[in-house]
Write a structure and sequence with these properties.
about 160 residues; mainly alpha; elongated
Length: about 160
């Protein structure tokens, strides 16, 4: 884990612990995906009986891993960036540019969280479930919306505290 650059003291330790917890959860979900795939492949090719719902489980674990990992990425500010032009800008512009980018990113993340939450409400209203396992899908949408909202708040915090 790259060091989270949070405030010193108890707040920084909480952020580091949060980052570590999110990393462990994501790692366990990736490990689970690996085992689901292994059991599915072995069952399919050795016993002629694939694991029922393996594709659904893998998809739900994958989307959960991505969205639970999002706040950890935002804590470290390790988002994917393209800096074709920024290297050629004068140094005095960079603080303002970083502030604008962080604020815009927070707004976009919050809008995405809202859209995902609204989609989750729609899924919940008609009782959407997975095909094979009949797992409700709305809780996964709510999880993704909550994780995205947390990522937005972290990004907003960075904009306020690091500018």
């Amino acid at each position: 884990m790259s060091g989270t650059s949070g405030p010193a003291g108890a707040g920084g330790k909480r952020l580091t612990a949060t980052h570590a917890t999110l990393s462990v959860i994501c790692g366990l979900m990736l490990l689970s995906m690996m085992f689901v795939t292994l059991i599915d492949v072995v069952g399919r090719y050795l016993f002629g009986s694939p694991l029922q719902g393996a594709t659904e489980l893998t998809a739900l674990l994958l989307v959960s891993t991505i969205f639970i990992g999002l706040p950890a990425v935002c804590l470290d500010e390790e988002n994917v960036t393209v800096d074709l032009l920024t290297d050629h800008l004068p140094a005095f512009i960079h603080p303002a540019r970083r502030l604008v980018v962080r604020l815009l990113s927070a707004v976009v993340l919050m809008a995405a969280a809202w859209c995902i939450f609204a989609h989750g409400q729609a899924l919940s209203s008609y009782g959407e479930t997975t095909v094979s396992l009949h797992l409700p899908v709305a809780p996964f949408a709510y999880l993704c919306a909550a994780a995205t909202a947390v990522a937005a708040l972290i990004t907003l915090r960075h904009a306020i505290s690091r500018s």
